């Protein structure tokens, strides 16, 4: 297949591009490199040293003979160029990762909220409109998030996209299937909830073939392909805005920084290893909906864990201390989470679960590159509301001193 990977320079986009190229697909990365600019804005860098996207593609070709082509394009701002590109290349599948993906970044300031909505909503709508206008028959696979559902403790499992309901009508009870209600917990998660509505409309109105993957928190860093050469290494975010919880705990353990548990750590979340992410994309690509079919929705996760249990596990593994901090986010202090993932299991996913070897691999990567870590960037200081901001310490130096005291 000819596959366009939008956002193919990012944390999941890059290993996905390699995985698909390795399977023999013709891969084109379209990316505006915004993630690299955001690093510059925040004054942080990936824990792992990343080469330019052009250099990464060159190394991949040298290693495997397979070519990945890179196209610098801003989906949210360059609608005409996007249309021209699609009309010219007519991909069989499009994988859409090209959205700002950090909840804390989206809540940093009003400017970050506006940027996240402008970028994410425009990127998705531009893509859908361009697909209709060019008339290409491509299967669109979008990376969504489990977080659209708000991790509620209703007791029943979160279904894969649709909820069966029964409503009273004047002629009796009627069955209906509706999109499972969203309850986003950040502006970022809100944009992914809006994406769902756009997909529903374009599938129904224009017959676009769309799969939406509701992914959990990704952990790990390497896939089979990123291990092949040091310059194919994946990016690794450890900072308070882009670092995600388990990977953060693992680098904290590696550098002797106490594990930063927000509140009681009673938040239960869905998780998936990076190797399984790329496998899920492969499986979703092979299971495209037909034109006129409703949007196919998968829960892309393999297990759920409570934050404090993860911290305890990493502490056991490494001897790290645990530090309970005031939570900068507005979220339930404690929640349960049950999630259905039957569809990927039925398609042959054999989940990688948390196991010591893979956790230690991340710690080893972090130890190797620990000289690149700025400890002042470890604390999470983006607060969800002005009230919370007044309670959370914004001074990274003060955080660093607390961390030193807790060591
Ligand atoms: N947390 C801590 N300590 C930390 C960092 C986080 O206790 O140092 C807590 C947070 O308060 C939260 C939980 O860990 O309760 C998860 O936070 P996270 O930063 O790992 O994940 P999140 O903000 O939800 O976002 C990440 C990705 C996002 C993806 C989402 C999947 O950045 O792109 O959509 O995970 S999910 O969480 O299932 O919605």
Automatic annotation (TrEMBL):
Pfam families per record: Epimerase
Domain NAD-dependent epimerase/dehydratase: 3-292
Protein name as catalogued: UDP-sulfoquinovose synthase
Naturally occurring in which organism (per UniProt): Paracoccus isoporae
Gene3D superfamilies: NAD(P)-binding Rossmann-like Domain (3.40.50.720), UDP-galactose 4-epimerase, domain 1 (3.90.25.10)
Pathway: Bacterial outer membrane biogenesis; LPS O-antigen biosynthesis
UniProt family annotation: Belongs to the NAD(P)-dependent epimerase/dehydratase family.
Organism domain of life: Bacteria
Ranges annotated as spanning the membrane: none
């Amino acid at each position: 297949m000819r596959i366009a990977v939008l956002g193919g320079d990012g944390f999941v986009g890059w290993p996905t591009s390699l995985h698909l190229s390795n399977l023999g697909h013709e891969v084109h990365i379209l990316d505006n490199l915004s993630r690299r600019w955001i690093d510059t804005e925040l004054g942080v860098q990936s824990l792992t040293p990343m080469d330019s996207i052009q250099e990464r593609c060159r190394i991949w070709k040298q290693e495997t003979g397979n070519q990945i082509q890179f196209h610098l394009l801003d989906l949210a701002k360059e609608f005409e160029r996007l249309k021209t590109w699609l009309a010219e290349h007519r991909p069989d599948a499009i994988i859409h990762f090209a959205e700002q993906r950090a909840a804390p970044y989206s809540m940093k300031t009003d400017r970050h909220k506006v940027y996240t909505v402008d970028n994410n909503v425009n990127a998705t709508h531009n893509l859908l409109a361009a697909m209709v206008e060019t008339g290409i028959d491509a299967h669109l696979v979008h990376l969504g998030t489990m977080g659209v559902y708000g991790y509620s403790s209703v007791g029943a499992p979160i279904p894969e996209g649709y909820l069966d309901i029964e409503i009273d009508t004047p002629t009796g009870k009627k069955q209906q299937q509706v999109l499972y209600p969203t309850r986003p917990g950040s502006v970022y998660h809100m944009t992914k909830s809006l994406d769902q509505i756009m997909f529903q409309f374009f599938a129904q109105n224009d017959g676009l073939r769309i799969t939406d993957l509701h992914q959990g928190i990704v952990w790990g860093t390497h896939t089979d392909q990123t291990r092949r050469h040091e310059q194919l290494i994946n990016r690794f975010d450890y900072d308070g805005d882009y670092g995600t919880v388990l990977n953060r705990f693992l680098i904290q353990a590696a550098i002797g920084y106490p594990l930063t548990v927000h509140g009681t750590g009673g938040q239960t979340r869905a998780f998936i290893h990076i190797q399984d992410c790329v496998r899920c994309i492969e499986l979703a690509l092979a299971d495209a909906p037909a034109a006129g079919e409703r949007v196919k929705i998968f829960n892309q996760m393999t297990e759920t864990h409570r934050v404090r249990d993860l911290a305890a596990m990493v502490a056991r593994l490494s001897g790290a201390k645990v530090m309970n901090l005031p939570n900068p986010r507005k979220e339930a202090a404690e929640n349960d989470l049950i999630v259905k993932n039957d569809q990927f299991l039925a398609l042959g996913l054999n989940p990688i679960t948390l196991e010591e070897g893979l956790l230690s691999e991340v710690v080893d990567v972090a130890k190797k590159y620990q000289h690149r870590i700025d400890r002042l960037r470890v604390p999470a200081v983006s607060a969800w509301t002005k009230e919370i901001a007044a309670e959370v310490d914004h001074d990274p130096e003060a955080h660093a001193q607390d961390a030193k005291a807790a060591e």
